[in-house]
Amino acid sequence: MKSPRDVLVDNELELPGPDPVQVVDETGRAVGDLPDGEVLRALHRGMVLGRRFDRQATALTKQGRLAVYPSSAGQEACQVGATLALAPNDWLFPTYRDSVALVTRGVPPVEALTLLRGNWHSGYDPYAYRVAPQCTPLATSAPHAVGLAHAARLRGDNVAVLVFMGDGATSEGDAHEAFNFAAVLRAPVVFFIQNNQWAISVPLAKQTKAPTLAHKAIGYGMPGHHVDGNDAAAVYEVTRAALDRARSGGGPSIVEGWTYRIDPHTNSDDTSRYRPADDAEPWRAKDPILRFDRLLGIDSDTHAEEAERMAADLRAEMNKDAHVEPDELFEHVYAVPTPRLRAQRDFLRAELAADRGEA
Ligand SMILES: Cc1ncc(C[n+]2csc(CCOP(=O)(O)OP(=O)(O)O)c2C)c(N)n1
User: Fold this and answer.
1) What is the spatial distance between Cα 316 and Cα 56, in angstroms, rounded to a whole number?
2) Which atom of ligand 1 is nearest to the CA of 195?
3) Which residue ranges does the record assign to the Dehydrogenase E1 component domain (predicted)?
4) Where are the domains of the chain?
5) CA-wise closest residue to 265 among 136, 162, 145
């Protein structure tokens, strides 16, 4: 009889190794096969622009121009590395934290903030960028991503789908259902888990007893890769290989990026209530941009002018008062609005009319 280990090998499923895959170490030294120079420069540029976008968005919350913003500071290597690994035809399914991934994919910065500004369900055309709308409920987009991937495979389209989720989201039933059916259907999906160690105030140790989140993949019958999530080159290479495998019929994979959320969960969170003040310190030394500055022998000023221009344009757009029709929020939710939705719309209309003194 075959041992469980033999079955793993038969299925070409290797348990993730004890250490996360690394291509560039914390000092900026290459310790693995590097992507070519053009890709390295694109990764560096994407992270510098992403961080500037992130800082600008955080500032806009303080000025009351943005309702809420979940910062990606420190997670740029995951978002930029995985997104640049996508082919133009592929799809990206982001969470609320992945605005930097959106901008990397080409979504205009102001459109990337529409949802978080509270103006519309989504500010960009998902089909134009092949980026699904950002979503706040955890893991709910994962089954949608599997559905899109499965449909693409049935139609013979050469498409892979990258879906982001956090470590906390892996505890949701939707994540389990998505992992399971992706594997059963051999759907061309890569689940990228940004393990930033915290789900608001819940630390990883209270989230799972698994050795790594990547290990979970084996139980579903797909490969799991544990990657240094602050190494954009490692994220890019591992994600690209997983996407290639998915596109060529090899089925789904899980990639876990081992990283850290430097900032609070959102601008309305206070980390001092649940984590020690020095918790982030070891991670500052692992900064993904600093590592690339050292690798490439250049500093972030290389892209400073472009980053400042982007931030200034974003400020100018966000400082304009948006024209919103509250009524529109009820459109496009269902093809045929439910009675409850119609009642809510009528209630809002009456409230607005009363505000105008028309009631
Ligand atoms: C289904 C669902 N349950 C609870 C929440 C409330 N909630 C918002 S963010 C969050 C933590 C998520 O942590 P994680 O998945 O690790 O992602 P991160 O925010 O760290 O990127 C929770 C519990 C939610 N948005 N959706």
Assistant:
1) 11
2) 16
3) 46-321
4) 4-324, 325-359
5) 136
Q: Where are the alpha helices (DSSP H) in the chain?
A: 4-10, 37-62, 76-84, 99-104, 109-112, 114-117, 126-129, 141-155, 173-185, 216-220, 232-247, 281-284, 288-296, 304-318, 339-355
Give residue for tokens 């009631």: 359
How far apart are the C-alpha atoms of 239 and 115, rounded to whole Å?
27
Q: Which of 247, 261, 291, 303 is catalytic?
A: 261
CATH hierarchy code of domain 4-324: 3.40.50.970
Per run of 10 residues, the mean pLDDT along the chain (length 359 residues) is 53 83 97 97 98 98 95 98 98 98 98 92 94 96 98 97 98 98 98 98 97 97 97 98 97 98 96 96 96 92 94 97 86 91 96 89
Q: Which residues contact 269 (CB under 8 A, 6 or more apart)?
A: 200
The pLDDT value recorded for residue 263 is 97
Q: Which atom of ligand 1 is nearest to the CA of 199?
A: 13
| Alpha-carbon dihedral sign for residues 313, 127, 229, 24 | negative
